[in-house]
What does this fold into?
Amino acid sequence: MMLSCVLMVLVYTADKTGCSYQSHGGSDKNGAGGGGRDVNAVKPDANQYSGPQFDPETPRNVTALEGKSAYLTCKVKNLDNKTVSWIRHRDIHILTVGAYTYTSDQRFQAIHHRSHSDQWTLHIKWAQKRDAGIYECQVSTQPVRSIFVTLNVVVPSASISGGPDIHVNEGSTINLTCIVKFSPEPPSYIFWYHYDEVISYDSLRGGVSVVTEKGDVTVSYLLIQDAVQADSGKYTCNPSNADLSSVVVHVLNGESPAAMQTGSAGLSNSSITILCVMILSWTFTRTDDQLR
It folds into this structure.
């Protein structure tokens, strides 16, 4: 009797509130007998999702030069009335919402052009090393949809092979190789210096040339023919987008670098001669004792 009363109260309450009871068993595929949808019904195919979608060609890794602008682009199709936000992950800081910027750091700016209605860009001016990290492009769906973009901030570096000291013989060719790495784009120019003066390729000296090969790694060759003592000294490679690098060139007048640096070749030869004499003397003495 008590069970019947409880069931009647449940049915009455559901009817008044507009709610329906969902059966977890004993119902057909149409929910007959349960008054609701089948919990085992197949979920909609993700490929048939018609809401906001991220463009699969959105760059996920962006590299920027320190001190230059960085652009993080997020392309969203079928946005409808949803909004796009950029969030910095290391401190969960909301940087932009739609076309508005929400940070006191004026280096950050939201960019959205009507001509590119599906493109939302986070512009970071004068990028710093601390700006490197993960940024989230988020769409205000329920639940939210996001993609993550990694920003790398690099400092291009230059180095001259064979440094810090290079020795060449007088009359030979000085060949200096400067390598520029970690640059998203090749340097627009590379200047070579002898001491503090820019090397002139059309000077009266003659025999000076530079060959530069630009690419992911840019290489610049400085060639100076018929080296003389006056060509000795400090040489510097100064790319437009990297710190400079220097070496010191020593033009030798018939003396080898080893002898110039150590001055010990004569002593070494004498030591070897004495050692050989001692070995021979010991061998003759041992042989003489055996014959006796």
